[in-house]
Amino acid sequence: MQFQFLGTSSGVPTRTRSHSALALQAPRRRDWLLLDCGEGTQHRLLASDFSPATLAAILITHRHGDHCLGLPGLLAHASMNGRREALTIVAPTEVRRLVESALTLTDSTLSFELDFVDVGTLAAPLQIAGLTVSAVALSHRVPSFAFAVTESDPPRRLDRAGLATAGIAPGRAWGRLQRGEDVTLADGRCLPASRFAPAAPSRRVVVGGDNDTPELLADVCRDAQVLIHEATYTREVAERVGSAPMHSCAARVARFAAGVALPHLILTHFSPRYRDRGKGPLIADIGREAAAHYQGRLYLARDLDRYQLDEGGRLTATPFEPARVSARAAAADGGGGIDP
Ligand SMILES: [Zn+2]
Q: What is 2-155+200-331's CATH superfamily?
């Protein structure tokens, strides 16, 4: 399972950080999900490993502009590149009105259908792009949701020793077990896939929208390896700003993650008052505050950094390399999108 940050700033963008957006993909898949679509997402995609042509669904956590104002431009982009496949958008109903109004008022017609799902009525988990997606209501100034994204079809490992002991030579039976099918042999013996090719535990990443109460995520985080959550402020700034914005500070998210024993916590959606380096409040201050409360693997998201969650639930971060993009852009001759 892999994901890449396309934007990590709250409110307004900075020179290094765009508005919220995250690309996420199941293993062995070309299609992928976009979680939030702040302004500038289509530009960030040009430097990413993901293409609008293979996008399966867009999930919007809430209707604030820094999470959805990139939608009309991204949809128009996909249309101008000739997309034909319908696109699912899971979002608050206001976002549907925003998209439909923007397309109408700009005389834009899409080359593909939009399939809107009201996130507030997402009763059954959505199965899409090899992933199972469920929504969890959060606490913010407007209705806001987290998405728990779980691998639908985890890989199976053949019990080669067990099969050899049972006298089953490599062949069709092995392939069927690997695909999760129970096998009945000619001699009547039954080989259950759950015994001879058990599935690895499904990987799960929980991606929060804006939220001042991380504890609302306790249930979905129990089987998760990764929580991606806003830490808009340090506690000192949060107390100065007051509770009206309804955001989380680093200490609160970190304490929550420690309480549910999450192995990996990625903080994002930083107030633009925090800088990457230099003088003044720093994003590193947010990291230091979180680290005082959380002993797992802690990361501070940066635009275009990529993460890989392997079968064993280990997370590997790959920092963004501008030179890599330059080479790919040159290969694409500077025009259009860059397909993976
Ligand atoms: Zn926000």
A: Ribonuclease Z/Hydroxyacylglutathione hydrolase-like (3.60.15.10)
